[in-house]
Amino acid sequence: MSQEEPRTTDTVEPPVKSVGLVKAVGILGIIGGVLLIVVGIIAWIGVTSQLTAENITIPDDAAAFQGQQVTGPFTAYVQADIINTHALEASGGKTYAELDQDDPVRATVMQASFLRASLFTSVVAYGVALFAAGMGVLSILFGWAIHRLASVPVVIKRSFVS
To answer: pTM score, two decimals?
Structure first.
């Protein structure tokens, strides 16, 4: 008595539910990603042009980039750091809050604090611009994956044939 393997036949059928909305979400993800990248690039260029227009040159006693113009996040950070160093030297190591209100050096330390805050704001702006562009890349990848998955859904039904 031989036992015969049951024969099967596979049928490919279209999905029961519409996937149009899923495809649309994928396309929106791609479009949103492109917009995030464009906005990130525009923000980066805007901050760079504003910093460059200030014509700030990093002094020779800075930790790095001596003699270079402040035009990016690293040079802005180094400039903020050397401003702090100079302000602390001028105040004998005291911060703005530690100086007496009638101390003549207090105005200099306050100005240094404002300059540092502005430079750190530009560093943060660069980070936000880079984050936006990075999220744009991820959004494009996820949108492409979702759209691709929605474009090829099939249902395979296996039937036994007697």
So the answer is: 0.78
